Amino acid sequence: MEQTFIMVKPDGVQRNLVGDIVSRFENKGYKLVSAKLMQVPTELAEEHYGEHKDKPFFGELVNFITSGPVFAMVWEGENVIATARKMMGATNPAESDIGTIRGDYGITVGKNVIHGSDSPESAEREIGLFFPEGGLINYTKNIDQWVY
Ligand code: RTP
Ligand code: MG
């Protein structure tokens, strides 16, 4: 089953949005297989956002993501990578549809509440970066038969 890396960014944690965001993924039918509140070290932030290292906003992005604790999660389910991106909405909350996480809770691109992997390759890479200890939980939920 597909897995993706989802992270409530420091603004989302400070604004008490962790519970709502977890609920959205639970209510959709996805399964939480790991989660932790953590302070992102600068080296991890730079590695995670490595694709943006030449962009003008890179320094600001790394400063922001290391500015307070994040809530890092791995969610599992059919097509979860692409569907999570739809649930998050467009990168810039000014363009995100209302009803999406960024559309409902964000205003500016720099503080857009949530991160989610954008491809199977990114998901595998990011899960490895944020959960180097592994240990994702493989379990059955009674609800599974009503989702699939
Ligand atoms: P993310 O990686 O955080 O899930 O966001 P994304 O895929 O939707 O967007 P991406 O292009 O990967 O950009 C990463 C993050 O950089 C910040 N950003 N700032 N100031 C700017 O013009 C700008 N552009 C992007 C955003 O916070 C975005 O989430
Ligand atoms: Mg991205």
From TrEMBL:
PROSITE patterns: NDPK, NDPK_LIKE. Its main location: cytoplasm. It is found in: Cytoplasm. SUPFAM superfamilies: Nucleoside diphosphate kinase, NDK (SSF54919). InterPro entries: NDK-like_dom (IPR034907), NDK-like_dom_sf (IPR036850), Nucleoside_diP_kinase (IPR001564), Nucleoside_diP_kinase_AS (IPR023005). Keywords: ATP-binding, Cytoplasm, Kinase, Magnesium, Metal-binding, Nucleotide metabolism, Nucleotide-binding, Phosphoprotein, Transferase. The keyword Transferase applies. It holds the Pfam family NDK. GO terms for molecular function: nucleoside diphosphate kinase activity. Transmembrane segments: none annotated. Its cofactor is Mg(2+). The active site is at 115 (pros-phosphohistidine intermediate). Its EC number is 2.7.4.6. It is an enzyme of class 2 (transferase). Residues 1-138 form the Nucleoside diphosphate kinase-like domain. It catalyses: a ribonucleoside 5'-diphosphate + ATP = a ribonucleoside 5'-triphosphate + ADP; a 2'-deoxyribonucleoside 5'-diphosphate + ATP = a 2'-deoxyribonucleoside 5'-triphosphate + ADP. ATP binds at residues 9, 57, 85, 91, 102, 112. Major role in the synthesis of nucleoside triphosphates other than ATP. The ATP gamma phosphate is transferred to the NDP beta phosphate via a ping-pong mechanism, using a phosphorylated active-site intermediate. Belongs to the NDK family. Homotetramer. This is Nucleoside diphosphate kinase. The lineage of its organism: Bacteria, Bacillati, Bacillota, Bacilli, Bacillales.
